[in-house]
Amino acid sequence: MLGALIRLLPEQDIEGHLLDDEGEHVIDLVRKHAVVYIRPALEVVGVLLLWWIALFGPIQLGWLFLLGGLGLAAHALFLTLREHRDVFVITNMRVFRASGVFTVRVATMPITRILDITVEKPVIGRVLGYGHFIFESAAQAQGLRDIRFIGDPDGRDLIIQRVVQRAGLRGPRSGVGGQMDGR
Questions:
Q1: For all residues of the chain together, what is the average pLDDT?
Q2: Quick check: helix, strand or coil at residue 106?
Q3: φ, ψ (nearest 5 deg) of residue 133
Q4: Of 74, 5, 70, 69, nearest to 34 (Cα)?
């Protein structure tokens, strides 16, 4: 049921950021792992508790608990929107991240600028199937350094490595038996 509600939330306009006339296409659109929705879900439980207190608690303070519940509900909705609209996109030409609820921020890195990717998998992330990416590039002060709570981080890392390889940026592919192709 929670998944059905999340699908009703507004999406980022990924297609509007693609260079269609250059032949750019999405290879993988990565949303955050479901673990990021635990905090908003706990806040909704808090909302229900506050509203229960408003109904069955001291009548003189009922309005306070109702307002507190509304504020907490608004915050839970904001957190859910923030996490849902934070997407990481791998294309055949670049990687970019689009985020933001009210103001959209797009950080882009061409495939040619990716020097190194570090994949961090904390213990709980290994159990639940998420990890974090740290991108190293020639420009260290950029908006696409840390991508957190990525589902299947090893698979996503392999996708990026394949895109980099196909772009011809890692040298020739090796043939059968470890020999280079064409030799």
A1: 87
A2: strand
A3: -105, 140
A4: 5
Distances (CA, A) of 48 to 3, 41, 74, 77, 149: 20, 11, 13, 14, 28
Highest CATH level, class, for 2-32+88-171:
mainly beta
Cβ of 83: how many Cβ atoms within 10 Å? 22
| Amino acid (one-letter) located at 96 | F
**pLDDT, tens only, 26-52:** 999 999 999 999 999 999 999 999 999
- Cβ atoms of residues 159 and 90 within 8 Å: yes
Q: Which two tokens stand for residue 79?
A: 């957190």
Q: How far is CA 71 from the centre of its chain?
A: 26
Residue 11 CB neighbour total at 10 angstroms: 12
Is pLDDT of 107 > 70? yes
**90, containing H or E segment:** strand 87-91
